[in-house]
Amino acid sequence: MAKYFFSFIVIFSSLFFLGSFSQLKAETFELSSISVEGNNRLSNAAVANYSQLKIGTAVSSQDLSDAYKAIIGTELFKSVVFERNRNNLLIKVDEYPTVNKISFEGNRKFTDERLSKLLSIKPRFVFTPSGLEKDLNAIELTYKNSGRIATKIKPKVINLSNNRVDVIFEISEGSTVEIERINFVGNRSFSDGRLRRVLESKQAGLLRKLILRDTLINERISLDKRLLTDFYRSRGFVDFEIYDVNAELSEEKDAFFISYNIKEGPRFEIGAVELVSSITGFEGSGFSKFLTIKEGETYSPVSVQSNVLRLEEKLRLQGYDFLRVKPIISRNIEELTLDVDFVMEKGERIFIERIDISGNTATFDRVVRRQFFVVEGDPFNPNEIKAASDRITALGLFSDASVNVLTGTTQSEVIIDVEVVEQPTGTLSFGAGYSSASGFGGLIEYKERNFLGRGQSLSFTINTTKDDQRYQLSFFEPMFLRNDLGLGVNFSLDDTRKQNAAYDTQNIQFQPYVVYPLGIKSKIKIDYSIAQTELSNPFGVGSIITNEVNEGKITSSRIGYMFTHDTRLYKLGPKNGVLFNLGQEFIGLGGDKTGLRTTLKAAAQKETFKEEVKLTAVFEAGVLTYTSGSSRVMDRFFLGSQKMRGFEPGGLGPRECLNRQCGLTNNDPLGGENFAVVRFEAEFPLGLPEEYGFSGGVFYDIGNLWSLQQVNNDVLYEEGSWRHAIGASIFWKTPIGPLRFNFTEALKKEIHDRDESFDLTISTRF
Predict the structure, then answer these.
(1) How far is 262 from 243, CA to CA, in rounded Å?
(2) Pick the CATH number of 269-346 from 3.30.70.890, 3.50.30.50, 3.10.20.310, 2.60.40.10
(3) What is the strand order of the sheet 178-185 is part of?
(4) What is the CA radius of gyration of the chain?
(5) Distance between CA 165 and CA 593 in Å, rounded?
(6) Domain 2-95, what architecture?
(7) Which among 169, 523, 619, 656 has most CB atoms closer than 10 A?
(8) Which residues, other chains included, contact 183 with Cβ-Cβ below 8 Å and sequence gap of 6+?
(9) 231: how many CB neighbours lie within 10 A of its CB?
(10) Paired sense of beta strands 351-358 and 413-422, if any
């Protein structure tokens, strides 16, 4: 109704002008004077200036028409009328009112402040029907994007004295419309459930009134189409297409049904791989060793592009700045393979004139600029610029980031134009949780991913349970001194009060570290730490713990490294691959004891049965040796539920029991200086709607914890023995995080081990 009203005003104004303009003679006349009537806010000179007419010049009917359009186009006047008396022109205007106050009624979903930011009309500014219509559309779109498609907004304009108005938006929000079902037509290689996990949009299912998951947003549909296409093509389906996406509203208008009509096409593997040169006198065969793509692999455009970037980087380091690598793909339909020829060719001699950055009000230019591995004056490489654009997006500091290449001052130069849209990067979280080991606890956490606009991370965490209080302060600079060197520092204070033990502990630690990538899949972390540990307030403990308590506060200083190699792809490719961690800590640099702590972790993961079942195998081991002094219980290894399921914390391994009989007291888990664990696991769907967030798993764990420097006749299991446990798991994705319920049975254990048939933990990757 409002739209028809606005159209009427425009038509009426135009007709009124034509009627008034007909009074003017069509011939040209010399303008002698301009006078204005009806204006209150604006001066005569301002109105005359809007007309763009000049006294003393010849004026035609076309000039008058243009003058009218210019004045009415300012959107300051309801109407404009021209009256001519000989060579004199009278301009009669009727001004639009000014806005006195804007208010909202009926809004619960969004605050007044949030809605006010959407408006173009403001208090003390001119009110116009076109501005009101624009603002109505903005508010309606905001509600629509939040799932309130049934929202109705009725504007009221109340006339006041002195040509002022109050504007009231009467809002009837209606209910949220959730996505009930997302279906796929044409998928054979993957189930609907597997494809739904790819999409950003989520379905709420039949219980949408209780399980609010997602609403329909057109922009997100476009993103989902890209995600689905990337998913299939990264798995070799190079001919994948999305024919159509239908979004239908239920008859009750309380739910959406989305259907994707797709064509998978055949799956292709990598055929022959060659590196060739199109440049006379340059073979480049020595660069073949840098290719990581192999024959027989599933074809992935991501893998091809990463090899292009790798080769061009190696060529640049060898001084070949203007050589480009172009992948040429050849099909073998009969064998369903794609031959890949990486062709080295001459590129244009184009240089980067400058890099312009805009849109960053809080973030320093250097945070964006350091994502470019080139500077002004360097050769222009389109692939490197694309990679820099991806790195800017990956920062997570911007809601939108675009990198465009513009023509420079000369034909041999380009300008890199970067436009970003900043988003909030700080979070303050409050939470509560429960674990079978620690009981109920509370959490307060502050995180800032763009500290002071420098792209640095700062976090502070307070995590408390009945028997444990942990405080942690962390800082990380991702690009210290150079683009690929990260610098961080952690400070932590951990206090326990008889947590799964008959004594209290305190650990204060300060740890600076650096992280350096060794390749796309590998990195090394080097750290130094100094810690002060203390055992206190023992109750009913044996001689070993008593002696360690009597040592008082111990200061330990150590330097260490952690090498990590991870071949898993988390975003587009299948989550198949291996993880290898090797870490060592050299103890005794400035502390009271000297020794070496070594840990090893090797894991493999594979998704099978159309990526519905995830198989995991993990091996972990550790060795702790002291060349001077001896270990304390806080230094030694323990096998908690994250490493060995089926046993309580401290439930297996060496322990001290009076007269080798473990009772309620004098039953001290001592930990071990050596451990080894092997875990096998399969995770699979339970057949329930995935919107409920449930999946299942089965596992089999084998573990051993042994070896102590300090022993006596009351110590059991120091020489170690292998324990076995089997179990089943239920995984539940909740708003507070992924929960894991383990139901276990210890197949082999020692007499005084403390096994556990159930535990609840936060689910983590291996």
Answers:
(1) 6
(2) 3.10.20.310
(3) 178-185, 255-263, 241-249
(4) 36
(5) 80
(6) Roll (3.10)
(7) 656
(8) 192, 257, 258, 259, 260
(9) 22
(10) parallel
Question: Cα-flanking dihedrals φ and ψ of residue 643, to 5°?
Answer: -110, -45
Neighbours of 197 (CB within 10 A): 13
What are the beta bridge partners of residue 728?
698, 743
Residue type for position 446:
Y
Number of H helices and E strands in the chain, helices first, is 11, 36
**Per-residue b or e along 271-301, where b marks 16 or more CB atoms closer than 10 Å to that residue's CB:** bebebebeeeeeebeebeeeeebeeeebbbe
DSSP class per residue in 461-480: EEEEESSEEEEEEEEEESSS
DSSP structure string for 639-693: --TTTSTTB-TT-SS-EEEGGG---SSSEEE--BSEEEEEEEEEEEE-SS-GGG-
Plot region of 640 (φ>0 → left; ψ -120 to 50 → alpha; else → beta): beta
Q: Which two tokens stand for residue 176?
A: 């949220």
In the block, tokens 């739904």 appear at 196
Structure tokens at 222: 């476009």
CATH code: domain 572-762 is: 2.40.160.50
Structure tokens at 493: 């204070």
Report the run of H or E that residue 61 belongs to, with start and end: helix 61-72
Residue 135 pairs with which residues in a beta bridge? none
pLDDT single digits (tens) 595-638: 999 999 999 999 999 899 999 999 999 999 998 888 999 999 99
- In tens, the pLDDT along 669-698 reads 999 999 999 999 999 999 887 778 899 999
DSSP state of 12: H
Contact residues for 69 (Cβ-Cβ < 8 A; gap 6+): none
Q: Identify the burial level of 116 via C-beta atoms within 10 angstroms of its C-beta, where 0-12 means exposed, 13-18 middle and 19 or more buried.
A: middle
Q: Are 553 and 571 in contact (CB under 8 A)?
A: no
pLDDT confidence bin for 212, thresholds 50/70/90: low
Q: Region 112-122: what's the mean pLDDT?
A: 90
3-state secondary structure of 198: coil
3-state secondary structure 510-539: EEEEEEEECCCCEEEEEEEEEEEEEEECCC
Which listed CATH number (3.40.1570.10, 2.60.40.10, 3.10.450.50, 3.10.20.310) goes with 351-422? 3.10.20.310
Residues 494 and 464: their CA atoms lie apart, in Å, by 10
Distance, in Å, from the CA atom of 228 to the CA atom of 138, rounded to the nearest integer, reads 30
Looking at CATH, the fold of the domain delimited by 178-263 is given as Ubiquitin-like (UB roll) (3.10.20)
Phi, psi dihedrals of residue 9, rounded to the nearest 5°: -60, -45
Q: How many CB atoms lie under 10 A from the CB of residue 338?
A: 19
Three-state SS letters, 632-651: CCCCCECCCCCCCCCECCCC
CB 125 within 8 A of CB 70: no
C-alpha dist (Å) from residue 257 to 149, 196, 250, 253, 707: 14, 13, 7, 11, 61
Beta pairing class for 255-263 and 178-185: parallel
β-bridge pairing 655-657 and 667-669: antiparallel
| Nearest Cα to Cα of residue 502 among 450, 473, 467 | 467
C-beta separation of 304 from 293 below 8 A: yes
What is the H or E stretch that residue 64 is in?
Answer: helix 61-72
**DSSP states along 161-175:** TTTEEEEEEEEE---
Q: Which token pair is 300?
A: 């992935």
Q: Where do we find the tokens 């959406």?
A: 256
Contact yes or no for 744/723 (Cβ under 8 A): no
Confidence of residue 480 (pLDDT cuts 50, 70, 90): confident
Of 707, 651, 647, 634, give the one whose Cα is nearest residue 676: 707
pLDDT confidence of 321, banded at 50, 70, 90?
confident
Helical ranges in 157-277 per DSSP H: 192-196, 218-233
